[in-house]
Write a structure and sequence with these properties.
Layout (H helix, E strand, L loop, with lengths): L8 H33 L6 H36 L5
Helix pairs in contact: 1-2
């Protein structure tokens, strides 16, 4: 296992930058989904087919949010360990 001490500084910085970029992408995607969900919930009444499609899309968005939430938690934990010099 490679420890943080063994990794060169430049490589750690690239990894940290990658994690921060991915974190930003995940948070932006969450905000877009939240806004779309809010917009959909305030739209005019729909027929049954429209409502079914909306509910399916909402379910898929929740599944994606759960998955991305777990990834975000792993990224935050890794960044925290990198700051504490316990990652590796």
């Amino acid at each position: 296992m490679v420890t943080l001490v063994d990794m060169d500084f430049e490589r750690r910085q690239r990894l940290r930058a990658h994690l921060l970029t991915r974190r930003k992408v995940l948070l932006e995607a969450y905000e877009r989904r939240r806004q779309a969900s809010e917009d959909a919930s305030t739209a005019e009444p729909r027929d049954e087919a429209d409502e079914s499609v909306r509910l399916d899309a909402q379910d898929e968005a929740w599944r994606m949010a759960e998955s991305e939430g777990r990834e975000l938690a792993r990224i935050d934990a890794t960044l925290s360990r990198m700051e504490d010099d316990t990652w590796g």
